[in-house]
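Figure 3 (text version): structure tokens given as input.
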């Protein structure tokens, strides 16, 4: 981030704050030519004062308006151009209220998001660990799914297996969708009991040291029908070809097209209702986006999902997903295995 003596950058997005500071608990970061000011409410002030040695920690006392206090500092150090990473309408109006005609306010939501697209070696290590925890959860799912179990019971087993290991956390609410309900990509019906012959879509994500992972598998309870097998094998092939298309420098929409064309040829194109993938990092859904409309170019250091799916109303759905690191001349699957779909 370039520094200009008359320019400041105000960070309000929680994930951007975590990315830049490496610390949780802050409420805002003001980056200036001379100093970086971290703003904290009273509850987190002592912690940030202890850990944030490289920053000037500014305490917001009860009753004080944090944006008003920030604008006081902006005026004091004579910033003429203040760029903000994100702001609600209310926050923007407050910044404007406490600004003046000599300060130009701008929004730039992409600057830090673009930085976050390419992972450092430290971030990749956290993502690998998150992937390991996610695979543990999926392995448990494959072991416990059986007729008579409720979807909620399976979710509980999965999440317990993640939480009890290495301070693992859940990246998002675990999805277990069975039978006809599996046709809803993000559907979940906790009280539904698994039946023999059901398709069961499981979507699991663990978080390690704030970094996420994302993995989906589709299982069939008992013997697979001819139609179920065809759809599963089509999605498996679409995912395999999509993963092979991941390369440094390739257009993201090209990878989407590779997978989508396989599903189209098999006659299921109308039932692939979402993009092929997304970036993964501090958020489970972030840039780059792998879709037919994406303008992103994939590069070494991106961590993305490849998750083709087919969802047929009144029949069921299939999704297979892995989290993958793109390298200069290869890829690394951060989630893998658990490919036997018959239980």
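Below: residues designed for each position.
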């Amino acid at each position: 981030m370039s520094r200009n003596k008359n320019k400041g950058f105000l960070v309000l997005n929680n994930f951007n704050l975590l990315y830049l500071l490496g610390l949780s608990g802050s409420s805002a970061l003001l980056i200036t030519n001379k100093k970086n000011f971290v703003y904290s409410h009273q509850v987190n002030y002592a912690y940030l004062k202890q850990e944030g040695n490289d920053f000037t920690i500014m305490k917001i006392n009860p009753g004080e308006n944090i944006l008003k206090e920030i604008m006081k500092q902006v005026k004091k150090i004579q910033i003429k151009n203040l760029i903000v990473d994100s702001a609600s309408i209310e926050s923007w109006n407050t910044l404007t209220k406490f600004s003046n005609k000599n300060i130009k306010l701008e929004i730039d939501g992409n600057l830090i998001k673009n930085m976050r697209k390419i992972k450092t070696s430290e971030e990749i290590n956290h993502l690998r660990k998150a992937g390991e925890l996610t695979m543990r959860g999926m392995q448990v799912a494959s072991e416990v799914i059986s007729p008579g179990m409720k979807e909620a019971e399976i979710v509980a087993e999965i999440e317990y297996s993640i939480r009890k290991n290495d301070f693992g956390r859940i990246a998002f609410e675990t999805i277990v969708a069975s039978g006809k309900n599996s046709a809803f990509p993000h559907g979940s019906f906790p009280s539904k009991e698994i039946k023999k012959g059901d398709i069961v879509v499981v979507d699991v994500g663990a978080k390690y040291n704030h970094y996420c992972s994302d993995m989906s598998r589709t299982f069939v309870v008992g013997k697979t029908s001819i139609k179920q097998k065809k759809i599963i094998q089509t999605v498996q092939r679409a995912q395999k070809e999509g993963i092979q298309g991941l390369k440094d420098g390739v257009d993201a929409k090209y990878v989407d097209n590779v997978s989508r064309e396989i599903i189209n040829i098999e006659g299921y194109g109308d039932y692939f209702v979402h993009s092929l993938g997304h970036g993964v990092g501090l958020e489970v859904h972030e840039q780059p986006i792998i879709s037919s409309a994406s303008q992103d170019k994939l590069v070494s250091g991106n961590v993305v999902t490849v998750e083709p799916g087919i969802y047929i109303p009144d029949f069921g759905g299939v999704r297979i997903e892995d989290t993958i690191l793109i390298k200069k001349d290869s890829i690394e699957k951060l989630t893998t295995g658990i490919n036997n779909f018959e239980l």
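Residues 129 and 208 are 6 Å apart (CA to CA).
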